[in-house]
Amino acid sequence: MALSQNTATRRRDRRETDDLVLSKGEVNANATNLNALTDSHHAAGSSTRMSLFILLAIFTCSASIMYLVYRNFPELTDDEMKKIKVPKDMDDAKALGTVLSKYKNTYYSQVLVAYFATYVFLQTFAIPGSIFLSILSGYLYPFPLALFLVCLCSGLGASFCYMLSYLVGRPMVYKYLTEKAQKWSQQVDKHRHHLIYYIIFLRITPFLPNWFINITSPVINVPLGVFFVGTFLGVAPPSFVAIKAGTTLYKLTTAGEAVSWNSLAVLAVLAVLSILPVCFQKKLQQKLE
């Protein structure tokens, strides 16, 4: 009887010891997982901070280049210098147009380079004001040149923004725009075989902001070539409206007046036309299957 009690006691002690070891193992495992999550959080935070630092450095270098561009601009009076700034409203655009038109013929190359560099700079860093430059181009240049210039500046600026996002923007997209980026990624996957038409459609229509398209496209694997061509062609219809309005710049009081009901109707028709090849392609595939 005593032997049985001793055996039971030893078994109980062994179970308690095993439970204690197991509890310590669970505690250690939980501590390890917590440390891993903490390290991951710190790594993500560190990556975001590094991305912001690199972005700031690139912006500073670009701003320095812009300063050099304007240093080579013709000598201006104090009153004219006050008007040389990124337009925030139609009054600023009119004042800027007055100065640029005065020097355009004599210093054609300098004015063109300054306009081009400013437009690309604004598009690259998603700074508001490019719509006023689009309107201003219709006032300064012949329509074909103005349209090509705006489309090229938009395509290059958006592509530079794309490359910036590819280089340093991924941590910020993952941190701040995860849900929206996932939703758009699903849409892109649906249109992967005719992506260029989808990009054109998005550029014509206001469904997604241009800055959002620019910074999320590299994250969801939109090819840069398709992105550039789609942007170049897609911004042409809205730019057509803005440039046309620029021919009567001094009759405008707000940017909204550049868009009429007729212009909206034209944009709607062009948006439908841009998506028609996709519909025809789907029907053709269904028939072949």
From TrEMBL:
Family: Belongs to the TMEM41 family.
Region (Disordered) location: 1-20
A biological process from GO: motor neuron axon guidance
Any GO CC annotation of this UniProt entry: endoplasmic reticulum membrane
The keyword Transcription regulation appears for this protein: no
Pfam families the UniProt entry points to: VTT_dom
Boundaries of every VTT domain copy: 127-246
Transmembrane segments: 52-70, 112-133, 145-168, 195-213, 220-241, 261-280
Protein name per Swiss-Prot or TrEMBL: Transmembrane protein 41B
Function according to Swiss-Prot or TrEMBL: Phospholipid scramblase involved in lipid homeostasis and membrane dynamics processes. Has phospholipid scramblase activity toward cholesterol and phosphatidylserine, as well as phosphatidylethanolamine and phosphatidylcholine. Required for autophagosome formation: participates in early stages of autophagosome biogenesis at the endoplasmic reticulum (ER) membrane by reequilibrating the leaflets of the ER as lipids are extracted by ATG2 (ATG2A or ATG2B) to mediate autophagosome assembly.
PANTHER family xref list: PTHR43220, TRANSMEMBRANE PROTEIN 41B
Presence of the UniProt keyword Membrane in the record: yes
Subcellular location: Membrane
Catalytic activity of the protein: a 1,2-diacyl-sn-glycero-3-phosphoethanolamine(in) = a 1,2-diacyl-sn-glycero-3-phosphoethanolamine(out); a 1,2-diacyl-sn-glycero-3-phosphocholine(in) = a 1,2-diacyl-sn-glycero-3-phosphocholine(out); cholesterol(in) = cholesterol(out); a 1,2-diacyl-sn-glycero-3-phospho-L-serine(in) = a 1,2-diacyl-sn-glycero-3-phospho-L-serine(out)
Membrane topology: Multi-pass membrane protein
Keyword list, A-Z: Membrane, Transmembrane, Transmembrane helix
